[in-house]
UniProtKB/TrEMBL annotation:
InterPro entries per UniProt: ACP-like_sf (IPR036736), PP-bd_ACP (IPR009081)
Residues in coiled coil: none
Name the record gives this protein: Acyl carrier protein
Pfam families: PP-binding (PF00550)
Residues covered by the Carrier domain: 32-114
Organism: Mizugakiibacter sediminis
Length: 116
């Protein structure tokens, strides 16, 4: 049986299924301005179709979670951060797991090290 729903309802339902209930919980925490800017950078640099910057919860895991990001995405994020903020995220940094742990952790790291 098929049910017709409007595009907005379909997109909402599709997003909820794709991200799961855990991510929806993380979205209840508001993004700061820096987190919002970083979320926009991530969505645009990775061409995340169907993902809005607001869909990235500040405390939700960036990797191994609902976004489905992998190590190649981490490299692309690092390159985008380097271009935008003027400093490098090094692949050999022993703190990378913490730094890339969430949108909030990455935004805080950027705020501490940015040149622009």
């Amino acid at each position: 049986m098929r049910i017709r729903v409007g595009k907005a309802a379909y997109d909402t339902l599709r997003g909820l299924v794709a991200r799961g209930a855990a991510t929806e919980h993380h979205r209840m925490t508001e993004q700061t301005a820096a987190e919002r800017e970083l979320a926009e950078l991530i969505v645009t640099s990775l061409n995340l179709d169907g993902v809005a910057p607001d869909d990235i919860g500040p405390e939700a895991p960036l990797f191994g979670g609902a976004l489905g990001l992998d190590s190649i995405d981490a490299l692309e994020i690092a390159l985008a951060v380097s271009k935008r903020y003027g400093f490098q995220l090094r692949s050999d940094n022993p703190d990378n797991q913490r730094i890339f742990g969430s949108l909030r952790a990455l935004a805080e790291h950027i705020q501490q090290h940015r040149l622009q």
